Amino acid sequence: MKRMKDKVVLVTGAARGQGRSHCLALAREGAKIIGVDMCHSVDEVAYPLGSQEDLDETGRMIKELGADAVLMAADTRSRSELQEAVNAGLDQFGHIDVVVASAGVFTWGEAQHVSEADWQFGLDINLTGAFNTVQAVLPSMIDHNQGGSIMFTSSQLAMRGCPNTVTYSAAKAGLVGMMRALASELAPRSIRVNTIHPSNVDTPMVRNQAVYDLFAPDNNVKGTFEDVAAVGGIFHMLPIPLLNASDISNAVMFLASDESRAITGVEFPVDAGSTQKLG
Asked: Whole-prediction pTM value?
């Protein structure tokens, strides 16, 4: 029997990258999907974000698998937009069993030059957006009284230091504190809460010129994808330069399924050993 049969899963950041990969992995195992994404780029992020066309393609791929889905554009910073998407999913499927708060953006810069607006933007997207996601679902999940699983996509940078990433690292570490509080609060209701901590993953968040240039060994020469892979591999214990989105989806599947029924309050690194490497 499929591991996610009769389960309904909300995935944020569903238009592409890790979010799309999670949607497809869960759908293959029988889940019904409620997927949301902001579906437009913003000035504060140096690379293009997912589009409505990307989200439509995710929908097409889910349908091709024979699974049901409700996909909507929604900015996780907006509680009203998220609630509208959640309500649409509840109208269609009746309940939500699993939340995968995967939406996020990568921003960078020296701490001394981070503006107040950029700091707030990073927290709003990567931390507050995740809380808004959970809060939109919790009343129905509690009323359903069948337990459930909530997971946040954090980062290796919540567990180890890296220069020029203060806003991103702070937000991703904030997810850990939120996870621990929610895990304690929701455990009597059999709702599990965990964080997943990927290393660098080969998705559009990495495959863009702005990030290539960030990892370029020479500031006077445009960076390449190979520069990113070379630097990424330095951090890993295992000989894996960059993770695949499916590596993270495998962890999502485990934490979403009943196989993890006894696991809550855990920081789950999927990072080729990055957070355990010395030196």
From this structure: 0.96
